[in-house]
Write a structure and sequence with these properties.
This protein has 15 helices and 22 strands. The chain is of the alpha+beta class and about 650 residues long. It has a domain of about 200 residues: Galactose-binding domain-like (Jelly Rolls). Strands 1, 3, 4, 5, 6, 9 and 11 form a 7-stranded antiparallel β-sheet that branches. Strand 16 and strand 17 form a beta hairpin.
């Protein structure tokens, strides 16, 4: 719990008035955090390096201000604030700023700067270059009401950008008051313009929201019972009731207390981007493991309610949500279905993982036209139809013109190419349309033209917007998708080419991977998923190739997880972490039939239940007060159903899962 300044602490500081000449304060021991950050790291604004910076997101600050907090070890007297921002493209990235001090449960205004004051800001005459950005550093100071504070709040409410977004702060400096200036005893007042949503974000950031209590695992309920309770709650309380018409799709966020949608955007946790969430809707890719688990639940219990609910969800999505101008489905890393408007939430398509062939088969049975439309629409990711350079992002609503625009800019992550290839292979297997083979061949040409001497693909190719060096993980993901696609292309020359190229990538990964040296990790964030999930891919590579190097590497990491008696108490590990570890242990058990893996799976499953389950829902991460699909609760639920079939030795077994790669 973050420490809040009490009246007694204030009076203790005020008993010793400040008489020293104002000097910069040492902030190295201060705790700095924010309600929003693109980097999802602690804001590097007191590190002394003016080339590091905190960056806000694309939200209009007049609607949703960005807040940065500086918490001191002891009450500290402040009198002046210095700010270093920048003016990239002649747009100053902080123009309106309010500075508050925490007082009891409220805030007291210490000072502010407005857009009209920006004329007096000092602009460094020499520009600096940071990556592909060039800008000048901009400096200004704000006189503060002299006061002893335990926590400061910098409320950023304006930039000079037309969209009033993407604020930047490179550094802040705090000073004591001038000699002889007396400090003021502060009184908390309301923050002008603060909305309920901003207030919630601030309370969450400063640890003023208590999460519901944890749960003691009950073996009488068992793994299947907790998973079934969650499914029952989602069917009863978690379906789409938020637009003009109710639908059987699941909403992405539910409060644990009321089992209702909060009605506002909730704060993101560390490592989570707002643009990856489905704040007012649902995301089919988040729910794929859950829909699979529901079908297995019906097989295990004889109750068709779960299978029927899963099929109804998917059928509604295919019949209603998938009809877009490009044919591309609104699902994945950014896009989702907005239940209020019955339109795509976000217009950017990007795969999160590889849907299973079983999923594609079910989707084909329900609506084959939607599947082929989506597969054909993926050509919108290809920005050059001659070279087959592609981008991981594509517009859902606007087809790219033919011929393509010159110099479109693109990020051709190999793993996404693998996802496209697999979708095209499935569509070919069902339709026999040779167009899909041509696109697969074009993608293979592009990759063969960019492969490095190491045998790995670059994270982004030399012609892309952000060329990088070799990416083992992205190459590995692509290779797995390719190998899964080979049976779908049976009888074609393309099948042999896909397999040959994929095995080359697989060999390069096996030679260069160092994952066996990894220590157990209990976090997951954007750009750094759950380690156990990555290790699962090594076992999957063994299934596809029989290459003995892969289970050896997986076993080295799995043993370290299994040797731990309990999970460390790190802050907010998402449900994805526990689900991935349980699934990894079950993968290992299927590999060598050693009961120690089941023992470890049970230990981690019980920990996940105890730290995440509450009254029919699983919270998205351990300290949260709400369920959220983007934190991969579905991964944990699938693992619990799968674990039940192993511990109870049921006739029906739940297979491995290989979506997240």
């Amino acid at each position: 719990m973050k420490r809040i300044l009490t009246l007694a602490a204030l009076l203790a500081v005020l008993a010793c008035p400040t008489t020293v000449e104002a000097e910069p304060l040492d902030l190295t021991e201060a705790n700095v955090f924010s309600t929003v950050s693109i980097s999802h790291r602690l804001p590097p604004i007191v590190d002394g390096d003016e080339m590091t910076r905190w960056s806000g997101d694309g939200t209009d600050l007049s609607e949703h201000p960005a807040n940065i907090f500086i918490e001191f070890e002891e009450p500290t007297v402040v009198g002046r604030l210095g700010v270093v921002t920048n003016n990239r493209k002649d747009q100053i990235r902080v123009t309106d700023l309010e500075i508050y001090a925490k007082v009891d449960d409220g805030w007291a205004l210490l000072g502010s700067v407005e857009r009209a004051d920006a004329e007096d800001f000092d602009v460094d005459p020499e520009s600096v270059v940071d990556g592909d950005e060039e800008f000048n550093l901009v400096r200004f100071e704000v006189d503060l009401t002299a006061a002893a504070v335990n926590m400061l709040r910098l409320r950023v409410i304006g930039t000079a950008r037309p969209d009033n977004a993407f604020p930047n702060i490179h550094q802040i400096y705090l000073f004591e008051p001038e000699a002889g200036v007396e400090t003021t005893l502060l009184t908390a007042l309301s923050v002008p313009g603060e909305t309920d949503m901003e207030r919630l974000f601030v309370r969450a950031a400063t640890d003023q929201i208590d999460a519901p209590p944890t749960t003691e695992y009950d073996p009488r309920t068992g793994y299947l019972g907790y998973a079934r309770s969650f499914m029952d709650t989602m069917i009863a309380k978690g379906t789409d009731i938020y637009g003009d018409t109710d639908t059987p799709m699941f909403v992405s966020i539910l409060l644990l207390s009321s089992q209702e949608h909060p009605g506002i955007v909730l704060p993101a946790i560390e490592g989570q981007r707002q643009g990856d969430r489905a704040p007012f809707g649902g995301n089919l890719q988040h729910d794929l493991p859950l829909l699979d688990a529901m079908q297995h639940m019906s097989a295990l219990t004889g109750d068709d309610t779960y299978r029927e609910a899963a099929v109804a969800y998917l059928r509604h999505f295919l019949d209603n949500c998938a009809r877009t101008p490009t044919g591309i489905w609104p699902w994945g890393e950014h896009a989702h279905c907005d239940f209020r408007t019955n339109t795509p939430g976000h217009n950017t398509h990007e795969y999160l993982g590889a849907p299973s062939i079983d999923f594609w088969e079910l989707a084909w049975q329900l609506n084959s036209d939607a599947v082929t439309a989506h597969a054909s629409g993926l050509i919108n990711h290809v920005v050059n139809l001659n070279t087959f350079e592609f981008c991981r992002h594509a517009s859902i609503m606007e087809p790219l013109p033919v011929p393509r625009p010159e110099d479109p800019g693109f990020l051709d992550f190999p793993r996404h190419g693998g996802f496209f290839l697999q979708t095209w292979a499935f569509a070919y297997s069902k339709s026999g349309d040779a167009q899909y083979l041509e696109w697969i061949e074009g993608l293979l040409d592009h990759h063969e033209n960019t492969v490095l001497d190491s045998g790995l693909l670059p994270g982004c190719s030399p012609g892309s917007s952000r060329p990088t060096g070799a990416s083992l993980g992205s190459t590995f993901s692509c290779a797995l998708s390719m190998l899964e696609s080979v049976p779908l292309l049976e009888g074609t020359e393309t099948a042999g080419r896909v397999e040959r190229i994929a095995l080359g990538y697989i060999d390069a990964v096996a030679e260069q991977s160092r994952i066996a040296n990894s220590e157990p990790r209990f976090t997951a964030a954007y750009g750094a998923g759950a380690l156990a999930g990555s290790v699962m891919n090594y076992i999957h590579a063994y299934r596809l190739t029989g290459d003995e190097r892969f289970p050896a590497m997986a076993r080295a990491v799995a043993e370290r997880y299994a040797d731990l008696d309990e999970s460390p108490e790190v802050r907010n590990p998402p449900a994805q972490v526990f689900g991935s570890i349980v699934n990894l242990m079950l993968d290992m058990y299927e590999l060598d039939d050693d009961p120690r893996w089941v023992e470890a799976a049970e230990r981690y499953a019980q920990t996940g239940i105890e730290r995440l389950y509450y009254d029919g829902l699983f919270r998205g991460a351990t300290e949260l007060w709400y369920y959220e699909s983007e934190l991969w609760v579905s991964n944990l639920v699938y693992a619990l159903v799968r674990l039940h079939t192993v511990t109870e030795e049921t006739e029906h077994r739940v297979p491995y899962i290989a979506f997240q790669r």
